[in-house]
Each structure stands twice: as C-alpha cells, then as structure tokens.
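[Backbone geometry]
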Amino acid sequence: MQIKKIDGDFSVMKLGNEYVPKEGFYFTAKTDEEFSLVCKTEFAPLNYVERSDGWKAFKVVGTLDFSLVGILSKITAALAEKNIPVFAVSTYNTDYILVKSEFYDSAQNALNSNGYEIL
C-alpha cells in the first residue's frame, strides 16, 4: 500500500465559530459540542479556543472501499509500536494520518519497515 506525504505544516484547533480557510488543504468537523478545524498552519485563523501546531500529514493513496477492514488500524498499530501518537481523519475516499513534526521521520521509518511505500 502506498502512503503519500503531504507538504506543509498543519494545525489542529477547536474554534468558537465556524470558519473555512480561503485556500489550502483543510478538514472541518462540527458536532453539538464543538467545531474543529485541521488546516495548513499558514491559513489558520487567529481566533480559536484551543490550538495545536506542528503537525505533518500522510494520505493513504487511492480510494478505499467501505468493505475494507483494518487499513487505519494497521497503520496506527505500526506507529503505536514506536510510541508515535497520531491524529487521524477519514474522508469518503481515504484516510489521513497526522503526526507531530518531531515524530515525522520516525513515522516514515515505521511505515516503511511495515511494508508501506512512502511517496
């Protein structure tokens, strides 16, 4: 399976109001309790409730069928073996895994050693 590195630094934050970056790569989630945003740090809003900067992102390449089992769990298990914390986001097509910058090289090594091709 191939995993693609996504260029740039990312921020994960909880916002008080809905906000969508004007450009760039981002994810939003809204529940009855919060509005969350993951976006490139350069496009992050200045008005937030909580914020965590310094994330790097990987994308599982291709469209994943809903009948597939264990894709994300195998990736996170490979990272957990090396004590690498993750923040995962899933979309209709695929999964994204974010790791803190200080774990980025170790994450790539862990994924490579578990048979994943990093692009």
Q: What stands out?
A: The chain has a mean pLDDT of 95. The chain is about 15% helix and 40% strand. The longest helix spans residues 71-80.
